Fold this protein.
Amino acid sequence: MTEHSPWWYRLRGLVLGLIFVAAFFGGSALWSIGGRTYWPVTAWAGLPMGEQGPELLLAIATLLVIAGWAVRVWGSSYLSARVVWNPDARTDALLVDGPFRYVRNPLYLGNALFATGIGMLATPYGFAIIVIGHSVFLPMLMHYEARGLRARYGSVYDTFAREVPAFVPRLTPATVSGSVRGVPSLAQGLRAEILSACLVMGMIAVWFAGDRSEPIFFALWIGGWIVQRLAAPPLRESA
């Protein structure tokens, strides 16, 4: 039986979404003080690099989002859509396979790549909100999950934590005695990452169409969230 997690963990998707809302709307409001027009990080940091600077940074931002999607799909394929999106932290098994042999939290690493790439579409103030918000919230999520796994698996988890970094991947795959190997399912990985796939499509649209694609980007974001919730209902505990 899995214990109910605290509200901020159960609503982690909403909290992360609100960080982006605060960044794009609150950051834009702060930036507009003094009459400044909307200036995304891609332009603010790119123009000093030359005429092609903004396009280069937008390309980098898009590639970061694609990389974040790929990492999350890889990790999710070893779990399942219903586990990834379950409100409560799962401690059914200590899985050390696939990306989990290189980094303990591949899905949150994917989140960080997403945050960096999408954040570059916000103003500098908005980007700062995204960086600060993720720097505070992602460690909270990781520490909470680690505490539950350590309580259940004891020394095996301690070995896992010692051999596999929490966030910065190691270069070679680790093997942890007493852990579980998984059977990856690309279908489950893709099903778990419908929302992130929509964000990738939104970033590609921005890359090719510029400001005209912003309504498409946000429509894909909202639509992807709705479809994701329908595609990955939470696990139900058996009686």
About this structure: The chain has a mean pLDDT of 92. The two ends are 9 Å apart (CA to CA). Residues 60 and 117 are 7 Å apart (CA to CA).
